[in-house]
Request: fold
Amino acid sequence: MKKSSKNQTKSRIVSAAWRLFYQYGYDNTTIDDIVEASNTSKGSFYHYFESKDALLGSLSYLFDEKYDELAETLDPGLSPLEKLIYMNRELFLMIENTVSVTLLGQLFARQLLTKGERHLLEPDRTYYKLLRQITIEGQQQGLFRDDLSINDITRAYAMFERGMMYDWCLSNGSYSLLQYSQQMLPLFLASLCK
Reply:
């Protein structure tokens, strides 16, 4: 999917900010650093974000960029279950390598406290579109249980992933999110299958 110039600017700001947050820490990263690293302007920054704190809610955009990338490279020969396991592995690998536990925890806290948008739950995110597509494919193949709707399966899977990330934050990253998920996800997915 080709992004509009407007979305590309916002995406550059978000990507640069999270890269800097991971590299230097949230408190040590300034708006000027973000503007310089994203090759944008302060005006552009403030057009999309009212403050640096507002970026804490933008991690879901970074996740969706990863899902956009995965959607383009996803092997159509994989089964729906293999696709879900692959997507999970790639996202959690990205999280472990580029998002600190503290920042992920701040994202969850911000989503819990916000009175406005909750980006993680936005149904038009690439994440949910891709999950629905894979779930529909699984239902058409007779893979998933008949007593669960597409929405039930999609929601349950998203809750599983959020729960894993939340527990990882509560545990202060004391275990490998990726390894534990690769162990538990197949068990969870089996509960959705016939």
About this structure: Residues 60 and 120 are 6 Å apart (CA to CA). The chain has nine helices and no strands. The chain has two domains: 1-51, 55-192. The chain has a mean pLDDT of 87.
